[in-house]
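Shipment paperwork, digital attachment
Item: protein structure file
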Amino acid sequence: MKSNFKDIPLSVLDLAVINEGGTPQDALHRSLHLARYVEQLGFHRFWVAEHHNMPSIASSATTVLMGYIAGGTRTIRVGSGGIMLPNHPPLVVAEQIGTLESLYPGRIDLGLGRAPGTDSLTAYALRRSEQSVFHFPDEVRELQQYFSAANHTSRVRAIPGEGLDIPIWILGSSTDSARLAAALGLPYSFASHFAPRQLHQAREMYVNHFRPSAQLDRPYFMPCVNVIAAETDKEAEILSTSVQKLFTGIITGNRSPLQPPDENYVMDPRAAAALPMMLEYSFVGGPGTVRERLEKFVAQTGADELMVVSHIYDGEARDRSFEILKTVQQAEQKA
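Attachment content:
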C-alpha cells in the first residue's frame, strides 16, 4: 500500500458551489473551468456530488453535470462523488452512466452513496420508497448486474451500459460503508472532509476485511480532505473563513451561498463546538504547511489516492490553491 504523499494520485471533488451574488449558471461554468484547469495540472479525477435543496450547491443533476464536464475536458476521469443510489432506480443510473461511458470511453467513474444528500423533508420528496436506503447493498449488486456482459440474457437490460467497464466506488463516512466496500471488493472513498470521526476505524475495517473481486484485487482507499493553500499561512487562513461560514450555516440551519472571506470573521458560538471536529481534516496554509500536514495524513491513513475539495470564493485564488498543491507534491517527487 502506498503511503507517501509524493507517490499518490491527486483528485478533485467539486460541488458546483454558488457564490454569494452569483447564480447556479455561474457555479456550473466555474466547475468546468476548474476541471479544465486541474486537468492541465495533472490531477487524476474530477468528481461532482449529488445534493438537493441547498442554496449553496448547484450539482443536484449529477449525471447531467458529469456530461458537461466530460464534454469540456479531454483526459481527466469524471465521476460522481457520489450518486445517492436510494434516490434513483438502479436501471436509470446504469443507463445514464452507460451513456456517459459510451460518449467518453475510459473516463467515467461511478461513486455511490447511501445518504440522501439533503434534509429529511427533501429526502422524502426524492425517495422511491421510505425503505430504499435499507436496500443499498442489493441495489449496488443490481447495478453490477446491469453492467455485466452476462446480463445480455436478462429480460431487463441497460442499453447503453451493459458490458462496459465502469469502475464502481463505494462512498461513505462510517464503518458500515467500509464493510460493504470490503465485502464487494470495490474501491472505497471516505468523506473525511466533513465527517472525520470514523476515518481510521473505517479504513481498518475496509483493509482488513477486503475480498478480491473481478473489479479489484486489493484494497484501494481514497479519503477526501479540505485543502486551502495560498502564498502564506495568513492568507490561507483568511480564505478559509468562507468555508467556515458555509459549514456554520449547515450547523445552524441558516444555509446561504458561499460568502467572501473576512479577515475579521468571528465564529458563531453555536458552531464553535462542532465546526472544528467537522473540519478536522482541513489543510490550510502556505506551501510548506500544506505539504508537511498532508505528508503526515497520507502516512497515517495509507491512502492510495487523495481527493481534495476547496471551497474558495475567489476563482483565481481557488486555481492557485490547486496549483500550489500540485507544485508541492511535484517538488517532493523531484527531491
